[in-house]
């Protein structure tokens, strides 16, 4: 890709990006949220048309008018936001748009057999091709997206944050698949904000900033500080900030007792004091997200209770939980947290409508003023409260969700994967914000697939395995290896 430019109304997303990918390599594409990575890979896939520049395949210029043409050329893209159809089966998703057919009729047996073969290749031969995708976890849907890419015999596979919804074992399996693909001559473009992954899987690195290529052909062993400087234009302190110890006499703000959700988790209990951060660690599917959703009232508990500052929260009632002072930033921010086509001010004020009402009617001016204050305080970019949430990068969308609950003044904040798909600069800001909220007396519960992040952010850690708590104690009293032992074995011994 040479000199790629792309304009959108009022903004230049790409301003002359170069990207050279070799057969059989893992080429890592790095940059902050909003740097232009997603736009660039959509140009490569045919989802966007470049306003200038050219794309060459095997040294010959090609035009990619749409994603179907891209697939025919052997270019497959696995987007960060999963693009599966929940109402279809695994096999129907894998071969969507290119089902094996004879005489105009679909060959279901052939589709099923080829899907089984692809799933075995991905190390998930136990996943039924007949399973409805909507019933799968986020990790399961990611596997389906990978199988779909492989079904096209792609020569170039673009993976946008592929490990974001995978646990440590599944990441190891993903890397195995990537190495098998590159050994067969397939080129893989790998996008990730987890720099430690780049070290493990990458061959070369291209860095983009503000829609321009600022470095290309870097070795995967390039020092972290240098990569961060290239991405941000400055040095970033990305370590988790230290916080003072929580006082023993601090009031208990969140008290969860014997919480059970049939089929997801059972008999989970914990308490969080004001000024304390509790981390929930566990594999994908351990019940950690479901615990947060049940505390928030998005799921109705089978048994148990939730109290905020000594007051019982009505089970299965989100309005009652919000009124009690609980806020939730969900794992899937686009599908569960944001109104993507609504402006930022409406997303921020979603939990504070009554404050912006006059005689029963919304005062949009008041909404805009309140949202603008929060957007600027959290450095959301661009700081345009009229812009639809869909138009923001992942890191800035996460900030909008946080702004919603800061505007509400929540006493209890539940954060599910708060740094997923977030660049190092925004990640440092989110770490600092969590520390600030705790310092101001909030009770914070954090779920993260990155065990180091859970341990670094938290005062105490609750480890979940197969829906039950197997350990609770100070974060300083346990390390990553012990957490992995617990979640793999499911034993508190």
TrEMBL record:
Transmembrane segments: none
GO molecular function, a single term: ATP binding
Pfam families per UniProt: ABC_tran
InterPro entries: AAA+_ATPase, ABC_carbohydrate_import_ATPase, ABC_transporter-like_ATP-bd, ABC_transporter-like_CS, P-loop_NTPase
Alphabetically ordered keywords of this record: ATP-binding, Nucleotide-binding, Repeat, Transport
Domain ABC transporter: 1-235, 246-491
Signal peptide span: none
Name by which UniProt lists this protein: Sugar ABC transporter ATP-binding protein
Organism expressing this protein natively: Cellulomonas alba
């Amino acid at each position: 890709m040479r000199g790629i430019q792309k304009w959108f109304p009022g903004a230049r997303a790409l301003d002359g990006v170069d990207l050279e990918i070799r057969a059989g390599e893992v080429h890592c594409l790095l940059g902050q949220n909003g740097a232009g990575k997603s736009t660039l890979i959509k140009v490569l896939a045919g989802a966007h048309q470049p306003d200038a520049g050219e794309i060459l395949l095997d040294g010959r210029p090609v035009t990619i008018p749409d994603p179907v043409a891209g697939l025919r050329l052997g270019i497959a893209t696995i987007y960060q936001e999963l693009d599966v159809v929940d109402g279809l089966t695994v096999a129907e998703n894998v071969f969507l748009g290119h089902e094996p057919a004879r005489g105009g009729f679909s060959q279901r047996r052939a589709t099923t057999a080829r899907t089984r073969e692809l799933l075995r290749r991905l190390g998930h031969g136990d996943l039924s091709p007949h399973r409805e995708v909507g019933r799968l976890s986020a990790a399961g849907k990611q596997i389906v997206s990978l199988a779909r890419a492989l079904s096209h015999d792609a020569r170039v596979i673009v993976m946008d944050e592929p490990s974001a919804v995978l646990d440590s074992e599944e990441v190891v399996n993903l890397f195995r698949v990537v190495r098998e693909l590159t050994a067969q001559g397939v080129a893989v473009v790998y996008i990730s904000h987890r720099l430690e992954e780049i070290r493990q899987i990458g061959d070369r690195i291209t860095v983009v900033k503000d829609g321009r290529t600022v470095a290309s052909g870097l070795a995967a062993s390039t020092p972290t500080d240098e990569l961060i400087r290239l991405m941000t234009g400055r040095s970033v302190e990305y370590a988790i900030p230290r916080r003072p110890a929580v006082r023993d006499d601090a009031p208990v703000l969140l008290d969860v007792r014997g919480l059970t959700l049939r089929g997801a988790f059972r008999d989970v209990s914990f308490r969080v004091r004001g000024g304390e951060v509790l981390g929930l660690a566990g594999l994908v599917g351990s019940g950690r997200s479901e615990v947060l959703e049940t505390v928030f009232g998005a799921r109705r508990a089978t048994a148990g209770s939730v109290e905020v500052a000594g007051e019982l929260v009505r089970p299965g009632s989100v309005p009652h939980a919000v009124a009690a002072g609980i806020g939730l930033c969900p794992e899937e921010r686009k599908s569960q947290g944001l109104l993507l086509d609504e402006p930022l001010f409406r997303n921020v004020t979603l939990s504070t409508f009554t404050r912006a009402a006059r005689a029963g009617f919304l005062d949009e001016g008041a909404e805009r003023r309140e949202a603008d204050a929060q957007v600027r305080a959290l450095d959301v970019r661009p700081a345009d409260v009229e812009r639809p949430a869909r138009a923001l990068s992942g890191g800035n969308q996460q900030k909008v969700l946080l702004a919603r609950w800061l505007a509400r003044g929540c006493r209890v904040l539940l954060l599910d994967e708060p740094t997923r798909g977030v660049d190092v600069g925004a990640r440092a800001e989110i770490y600092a914000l969590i520390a600030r909220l705790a310092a101001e007396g909030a009770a914070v519960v954090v779920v993260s697939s990155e065990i180091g992040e859970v341990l670094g952010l938290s005062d105490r850690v609750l480890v979940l395995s197969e829906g039950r708590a197997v350990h609770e104690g100070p974060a300083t009293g346990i390390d990553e290896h012990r957490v992995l032992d617990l979640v793999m074995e499911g034993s508190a011994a």
